[in-house]
């Protein structure tokens, strides 16, 4: 009856008597160690059984410990657990338990599948960690390889534009201005790509602190003043009474507003108005930027925050289509959201909602120390 009950178990079971001889086993034990009933029914000694088993798993120390617990006197016997990694790829969880009558119960569970899944997860995690390291290395490498020649080019162009280095004729001045304009545009694109790569690599940590809302808005406004003049667009700012401070990364929120304002100006017609409003929205603070541009078709609104999505047709706005994607990423890093309301011919309104209060115990930003982004 005991044998029939044990045969229903998936685990291999072997019971040895106090004399070290096999008294009971099940079919799973025989199958795991490839032993025939003829051998096992003869009640072999534990020395013989472990010798047979060692043909599949040659681990003298493990089998010596097994023999010791089976043959030692009762006072010295202790239970133990172990794992057998056999050369054939099978992984067994082994347990030995002393019985009150002086016998010993051995169990062997096949955990190969679970161990394979565990190893696969470990390997996947290691691969992800390697990928993250490669991303971080890429950010550092691109930062140096792209920014350094760009900064040199812009520096020399700025020198040429200075009267101290000689007077330029109209055509030369036009060429230098084109170099500066194109160089600054390229630098902005490189900075945007590096920002996104830093966020993707998980290397960007916000420097959270209480900041005055008015100072953030003023910094963003200063960054777009030249564009406002060039595009003949007026900027109206409205801050709701009682909205004074927010716990956030001041430079990153300024970057959010700068990108939204740049986007609004780029799609605004001359003599039009862009509006920046700030208000409390429950436990959040809401920054909204609205323009009087052509608006966004409904079927495009779902992808407007995707990377490299640029709706420049019919406008003076130029860019790689990364600004709004960065807005979304930075808002989400703050635990916030960004939404868009728009209709063709009625302009667009982008609203970023950020928590008013956050835990300020955040690591310092691990961005590229060479980065000194200048708004505008």
Automatic annotation (TrEMBL):
This is histidine kinase. GO terms for cellular component: plasma membrane. Gene3D superfamilies: 1.10.287.130, Histidine kinase-like ATPase, C-terminal domain, PAS domain. One of its GO terms (molecular function) is histidine phosphotransfer kinase activity. SUPFAM superfamilies: ATPase domain of HSP90 chaperone/DNA topoisomerase II/histidine kinase, Homodimeric domain of signal transducing histidine kinase, PYP-like sensor domain (PAS domain). Its EC number is 2.7.13.3. InterPro entries: HATPase_C_sf, HATPase_dom, His_kinase_dom, HisK_dim/P_dom, HisK_dim/P_sf, PAS-like_dom_sf, Sig_transdc_His_kin-like_C. The keyword Cell membrane applies. PROSITE patterns: HIS_KIN.
């Amino acid at each position: 009856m005991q044998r029939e009950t044990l045969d229903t178990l998936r685990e291999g079971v072997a019971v040895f008597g106090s004399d070290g001889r096999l008294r009971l086993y099940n079919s799973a034990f025989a199958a795991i160690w490839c032993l025939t009933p003829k051998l096992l029914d003869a009640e072999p000694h534990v020395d013989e059984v472990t010798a047979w088993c060692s043909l599949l798993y040659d681990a003298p120390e493990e089998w010596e410990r097994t023999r010791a617990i089976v043959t030692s006197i009762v006072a010295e016997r202790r239970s133990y657990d172990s794992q057998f990694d056999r050369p054939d790829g099978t992984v067994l969880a082994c347990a030995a338990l002393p019985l009150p009558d002086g016998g010993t119960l051995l169990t062997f569970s096949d955990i190969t599948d679970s161990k394979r899944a565990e190893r696969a997860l470990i390997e996947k995690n290691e691969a992800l960690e390697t990928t993250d390291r490669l991303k971080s290395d890429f950010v550092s490498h691109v930062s140096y390889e792209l920014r350094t020649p760009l900064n040199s080019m812009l520096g020399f162009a700025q020198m040429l534009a200075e009267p101290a280095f000689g007077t330029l004729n109209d055509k030369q001045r036009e060429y230098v201005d084109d170099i500066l304009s194109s160089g600054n545009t390229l630098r902005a694109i490189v900075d945007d790509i590096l920002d996104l790569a830093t966020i993707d690599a998980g290397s960007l940590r916000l420097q959270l602190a209480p900041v005055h809302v008015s100072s953030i808005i003023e910094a963003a406004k200063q960054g777009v003043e030249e564009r406002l003049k060039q595009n003949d667009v007026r900027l109206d700012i409205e801050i709701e009474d009682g909205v004074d401070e927010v716990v956030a990364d001041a430079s990153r929120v300024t970057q959010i507003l700068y990108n939204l304002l740049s986007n609004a100006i780029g799609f605004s017609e001359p003599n039009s108005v862009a509006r920046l409003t700030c208000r409390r929205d429950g436990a959040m603070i809401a920054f909204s930027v609205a323009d009087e541009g052509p608006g966004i078709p409904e079927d495009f609104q779902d992808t407007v925050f995707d990377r490299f999505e640029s709706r420049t047709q019919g406008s003076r706005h130029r860019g790689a289509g990364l600004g709004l994607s960065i807005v979304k990423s930075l808002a989400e890093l703050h635990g916030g959201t960004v939404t868009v309301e728009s209709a063709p011919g009625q302009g667009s309104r982008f609203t970023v909602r950020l928590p008013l209060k956050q835990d300020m115990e955040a690591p310092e930003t691990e961005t590229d120390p060479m980065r000194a982004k200048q708004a505008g």
